[in-house]
Amino acid sequence: MGLSTWFTQHRITRDARCLLRRRRAAPLLAMIKAVHRRRGRVDIVDVGGTRAYWNILPSGFLGEHHAAITLVNLPGGPPPELGPGFSWVGADACDLSRFADHQFDIVHSNSMIEHLGSWARMKQFAREARRLAPALFIQTPNFWFPIEPHLMTPGFHWLPIPLQAALLVRTGLGNLVRSPDIDDAMSKVEEFRLLDARTLSALFPDATILREHLGPLTKSLIAVRETA
């Protein structure tokens, strides 16, 4: 078993992820409570999100705070099973023009922005997110954390892109199977581009950047803009 496969499949790693997600939820819970105190309900748009993600919140919390969550993902295929309080919209994260300015109370996104493929598309998403709601909660893995979170491979994301692609042609990493050629490998490499605190702050200049720690290291970053 390779190191990346061990990181991907090992129960300790999965438990650590679960713990970090629940810890990450603390500022989000506070944000939802603040909006509910003011409005009596909370409208959230979760860009790139899933219904299962919201299970990290305490049971009954969303219902108690009259939260309505709109999940936005790329169109195509039937919408997922959602349940009460959730709706689904097919749209590109960089073009959310179907929604009005401040249509929501909170814009939420978890580990999505690094998948947009280019700095230009990240800026487009950031502009859309900042206009849709007064409050923001945008999480992304930290570039300077030593383990690449998608391939679960130490230092992979610090390598030159041609070397990353060459490695994927030679072997599968994490959940990715071995690429048959460089073209396929380059497509996979370009699927994620990690940010650090400076670049995330440049995208969301009016947000506070929170750091999610694993031991002494910053594993993830969260751009938080509180409700006015």
UniProtKB/TrEMBL annotation:
The keyword Iron-sulfur belongs to this UniProt entry's keyword annotation: no
Keyword Methyltransferase: yes
Keywords assigned: Methyltransferase, Transferase
Domain of life, source organism: Bacteria
UniProt cross-references to Pfam families, sorted A to Z: Methyltransf_11
InterPro entries, alphabetized: Methyltransf_11, SAM-dependent_MTases_sf
GO molecular function, one term: S-adenosylmethionine-dependent methyltransferase activity
Gene Ontology biological process terms, A to Z: methylation
Domain Methyltransferase type: 86-132
Name under which the protein is recorded: Class I SAM-dependent methyltransferase
